[in-house]
Design brief:
This is FXL22 protein. This protein has 226 residues and is α/β, with parallel strands linked by helices. It is built from ten helices and six strands, in the order H-H-H-E-E-H-H-H-E-H-E-H-E-H-E-H. It has two domains: 42 residues, Monooxygenase, CATH 1.20.1280; 181 residues, Alpha-Beta Horseshoe (Leucine-rich repeat, LRR (right-handed beta-alpha superhelix)). Strands 1-2-3-4-5-6 form a six-stranded parallel β-sheet, with helices on one face.
Length: 226
């Protein structure tokens, strides 16, 4: 029995066990398998492990997408999390090559995936408040937003949650150093039904001008010594 003789439900089930590259390669073998690859039901969940994967032509974006995760745990993440004024020329060049990759992808998600229910971003150091704001506006059904080690996220994202996160039930802003206790408290007051977690975020040294940053670091060291 040839694989193409299986019914549509069986083929979808078979594709569901494959990673994105394997799905794409199988779809190249014949027209019927290409049609299975293009079935929206196959693409309700997407996981990415680096910005490079976002540029590959091995997945589909559409209204069927419900769960999206972009988690980058490479050592290179540390470079993206360095403040701009501290980066050397090599580090700046490295960041410039993918600075807008995740943001551009999420803007595409805003336009094409209005039924998104869950978004997880980890190590996405170039994601900004404006990007999250657009996503909250365009994906009104979003129930879970988890941000980890996204250094450009500030209290403006928390304010956007209070204004546009009507469906939100879970909010994580872990290791986001530019989040403040005041911003977190506003979310607690205005959105009491949201399960809020902010591990380390408001206790980290926030970005600031070089001189102020140095003063904060020295003060922090003294507190540790005491």
């Amino acid at each position: 029995m040839h694989i193409t003789q299986l019914n549509w439900e069986c083929l979808l089930h078979l594709f569901s066990f494959l990673d994105k590259n394997s799905r794409k390669n199988l779809a190249k073998t014949c027209r019927k398998l290409l049609e299975v690859f293009q079935d929206p039901l196959l693409w309700c969940l997407l996981n990415f492990h680096s910005p490079v994967e976002l540029k590959k032509d091995n997945f589909l974006l559409g209204p069927a997408l419900k769960y999206l995760s972009i988690c980058w745990y490479s050592e290179r993440v540390k470079v993206c999390n360095i403040e701009d004024w501290m980066k050397n020329s090599f580090q700046k060049d490295f960041c410039k090559r993918h600075e807008n990759t995740v943001s551009d992808f999420l803007l595409d998600v805003c336009n094409r995936c209005p039924n998104l229910l869950s978004l997880t971003l980890s190590g996405c150091g170039h994601i900004t408040d404006d990007c999250i704001l657009q996503l909250l506006k365009n994906c009104p059904n979003l129930m879970s937003l988890k941000l980890e080690n996204c250094v450009r996220i500030t209290d403006h994202t928390l304010e956007a949650v209070t204004l546009h996160g009507a469906s939100l039930r879970t909010l994580h802003v872990d290791f986001c150093r530019n989040i403040t206790q005041a911003g977190l408290q506003r979310v607690r007051e205005k959105c009491p039904s949201v399960m809020l977690r902010a591990e380390k975020s408001a206790n980290m040294i926030p970005d600031s001008k070089p001189e102020k940053k140095l003063m904060l670091q020295k003060a922090s060291r003294k507190l540790v010594q005491l």
